[in-house]
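Database export, one record per block. Field names are fixed; values are copied verbatim from the stored entry.
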Amino acid sequence: MSPAPLIVFDKVWKTYGQGEAEVRALAGIDLAIGQGEFVAIMGPSGSGKSTAMNIVGCLDTPTSGRYGFMGVDAGRLDRNRRAELRNLYIGFVFQGYNLLPRTTAVENVELPLIYRGVPAQDRRALAMKALAEVGLEDREHHTPAELSGGQQQRVAIARAIVTRPTLLVADEPTGNLDTARSHEIMQLLTRLNEEYGLTIVMVTHESDIAAYAGRTIAFRDGHVASDTKKLEAA
């Protein structure tokens, strides 16, 4: 018997506004993502992909239908309970890095641990381990201004994984990077997925970036237009 999916959309609708101003962002989506999958979400502007990502990350809730995360009906939780889910189980990586500018790399990585109340000595050890996992153990005292864009994104990834989340939500993680640095970041995410079994759900508009994922879901007009899995190598 196969394990229950980590993420389930069951007839999920999301609408904004009312009457003539109503916008239907998601129109009855059915979707399941298993533990350990690496999924790319694509689609044009207004397709619903960002709305779906916000629901996946427990940043938003469906208007109707069910969003299940780790067996919990997360869409029915209040704001505080959803914040608990995010803090305990979900890491986030954004296009703009979102690092504190006057704070060193290791201090940026420590931030989620501060929110959890982890003692200072333990925080530093865990943050250094996460920096080592992204290849920046020798840059711990550098501020973002002293790091390249690719290095800043590595710090952001270290911050996202320092709490050992179940799910990593990545929103255009290579959007601000050149081609070479983009592929370095994608190789890093692929390694984290393969070595640690980290489930990754990533929004991207670039097909060569989506190709790193094991599965690509395309949205259009609030619907899933296609859902394809990469063929395993023989």
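Remark 1: Residues 7-229 form a domain with the Rossmann fold fold (CATH 3.40.50.300).
Remark 2: The chain has a mean pLDDT of 93.
End of record.
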